[in-house]
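Newbie here. two chains, one complex. Structure please?
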Amino acid sequence: MIIGRGDVGGSVIVLIVEDEPLQRLDMIDIAEEAGFEVLEAHDADHAIALLEKRTDVRLVLTDIDMPGAMDGLKLAAAVRRRWPPIKIIVTTAGVAPVQADLPNGAVFLPKPLNHRRVIETMNRLMA
Amino acid sequence: MDVVRPQRFRQADLMVDETDSGAVLRYAILDTAPEQGFDDLTALASEICDVPTALVSLLDSDRQWFKAKVGFEPRQTGLDSSVCRHVVREATTIVIPDLTKDERTRDNPLVTGKPGIRFYAGAPLATCFGVVGALCVIDTVPRPEGLTLRQRTSLERLARQAVLLLEARRDSMDLRELLAAQSGADAALSVSEGRWRQLYRNMDQGFIYARALRDKNGVIYDWRYEDVNKAWGSLVGIDADFVRGRTIREVIPEIEEEWVTGLARVVDTHNPARFTSRVGSSNRWYDGTAQWVGGDDFTVIFHETTARVEAVRRRDALLVLGDMIRDSLGTADMLAKAAEVIGVAVDASRATIGEFDHNRERIAVDAGWALPSMPPIGGSYRFEDYGRIREKLVQGETLIIEDVETDPRTADAAADWRALKARAVVNIPVKVEGRTTIVLIVHREEPYAWTEDEVAFLRNAADRLETAIARRREEERQDVVNKEIAHRLKNSLAMTQAIALQTLRGDASSAGLEAFAARLQSLGAAHDALTMGRWKAAVLTDVLAGVLDSVGVRGRCDISGPEIAMGSRASMSTSLLIHELATNAMKYGALSSEKGRVSIEWRVDGVDDDGELILEWTERGGPPTVASTRKGFGSRLVRLGLVGTGGSTVRYDQTGLKACFRASLSQVEQA
């Protein structure tokens, strides 16, 4: 059995990617309440830069509609390609993406976010 | 011998008109003067049914024409204005209490504009050749009760009388024709050979004097042209001198059996035989009479009706197109089927639709429809490669080419045309919002002189396509706007949630904050359901599914009921209501225990304005429930009901909570 980093001391690290600061704050609160350690990024490029520096991120929660060349769906695809073990949750206030646009294993949750469902989903993906 | 019917439509399974569309022509009644008999029938119909207007309407290829009318000005209208065509197609009496509420008629110009007709009842004029029209009564006020049984029966009786009158007119015509033919034959016996020939040789109609040929058992197997007139030659397209003394099987070896034994049969039956038939090898249609003149001899008098038959075919094609466009809102699939209807109607080898690209140097051509022998055409093409045709098309002019090999506009580019197997071409540009954007493209494999009728038909068809395409574009645009609105609304909800949680953190209970957030989420789900319904209406099933999904209990609820369209107000309030019930059931009711389930069933009582939506929420398999003593926001929402005006009853049973909600359908549908 392979023992993941999260299992050996320290808490699980979640990267939250959201351009809107208030909503980002809300999402950070959700994750921290659930006992996760949080990194934050305000767009996809920022998120990629963080992921390239850190090797301990286990889960990415990202908004789809963000300024910049890369939106949340492209970020999700990049994460799946470059860091396959990282779990992905995608959210938007817009139209739900079709399954084919999501990377394998990624989960979609609509906005406004249901806190309980976000926590449940995070725990399930980390289980 | 074929019957008159657009054969290829039927094969393509696109033919909706089961009646013989050429039937009315057999009565030679169109555009004749009014006759007392028919006038009396419409007068009686209007009196009996107590309406201001009654008509005897006959369906022609491109119009309905009135043999008799009371209380209606025009002598004819276009088919788009015809309600009677539905009677003809369905071959049954139709009563429409309010034309604005029937999908067949609510867009009819006579309904939407002057004179604003509202009530219609029509009985079919069913002749032995098929339904040719209708006897109808019309009023400008709706009549919810329709016709009484007695009125309806009377209308049908009067319609049968009208058919009898039609038949009587035709019989007397037949008699005159028969007498004329017989006098021709009699003359043959009494006057000299030369004078007899003189008589029929100058007729405009084709004339054949023939002798049936029998085998040794006396069975007719062929017949011989003893003589034909000049008109025969031009009508059939064979030299008259060549044919005399030869049999029909020798002259036209692939002739249909009915032309041989069907015609010659008159020498056995002695009864004249009328026919409307096609010679397959030439694809021309003829209408005429064969009759016995003594011994094994018979005569045939006929004229060509190809143009009329083709016109009927094209009329049917337009009707099919109209229905397709109305039913399927200009989807890509509809355009492919429309291309087939159009192509088949003009005997083309290929029909499709092309779309100018932005700089208009190229055209993106749809796969469309084509005979199997044609190479596929779907793809992008440069106008430049196909000669000098772009300029005119951009200006909106129809391009008609008989033969691309010789036409000065295309001769230099003939190789590219050859690759498409297109020799004869019609391109009809369609303007959308004043710009040519779409081109209807029709090809034939062989050179062909397109007739004015065909080009007129194609223009007409292209106009209809334009309507469909414009509508599709409008909807696509609306879709984008709707999605954007929904996005912004839900983003505002997400912002509201974030602000409230940040503001109230520490001041409010976490349960209260959670309940607040959950209600916002159920509003978000209602927005989703409304976006699916293009913001005019959401479907109740979607509203319920959205809310139950947002709290994660959809799989434990059994949802069933008819499709109900909800206005935006009802969608919002119902979402909040169902959200309260679901979260309550998760905390205290059936969904708090593992096996518990909820059934949500609804139905409609009453009709139209009195209709009432009744929705029942029934919990099973949970702990026994007791009435909550708290009068919180949740129980207030429940009391407000589906549309915020009450109508809710809640019972706490041993088996679980039962709630019933009633609301008037008109309030539910209100935007």
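Moderator note: Residues 508-669 of chain B form a domain with the Heat Shock Protein 90 fold (CATH 3.30.565.10). Confidence is low (pLDDT under 50) at residues 1-20 of chain B. Thread marked as resolved.
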